[in-house]
Design goal:
Structural class: mainly alpha
Largest sheet: 2 strands, antiparallel
Strand order of the largest sheet: 1-2
Number of strands: 2
Radius of gyration: 13 Å
Helix content: 40-55%
Order of helices and strands: HHEEHH
Shape: globular
């Protein structure tokens, strides 16, 4: 979703980066992320107007659904 390489993600894990810094510093947000639909914490992700908050909630939704065993294709309806 973010375009980070595995090495960059490893570096971020040991850094003091905030979620905001993680998202704003992303090398290339995948446009297909906007195909993620549904609710996270009672909020419909596609209705969130603030781009950073929407991306944060989309990431939350992806993590939640992947933890349930869903595939990316099932979550978005396409490959991202």
């Amino acid at each position: 979703m973010t375009g980070y390489s595995p090495e960059q993600l490893e570096d971020l894990l040991i850094s003091d980066a905030t979620y905001g810094e993680f998202l704003s510093g992303a090398p290339g947000m995948n446009p297909a992320r906007l195909d993620v639909r549904g609710k996270v914490c009672g909020v419909q992700v596609e209705t969130i107007e603030d781009p950073m908050m929407r991306d944060l909630r989309i990431l939350d939704k992806l993590v939640d659904e992947l933890a349930k065993g869903w595939t990316i294709e099932k979550i978005t309806g396409k490959r991202i």
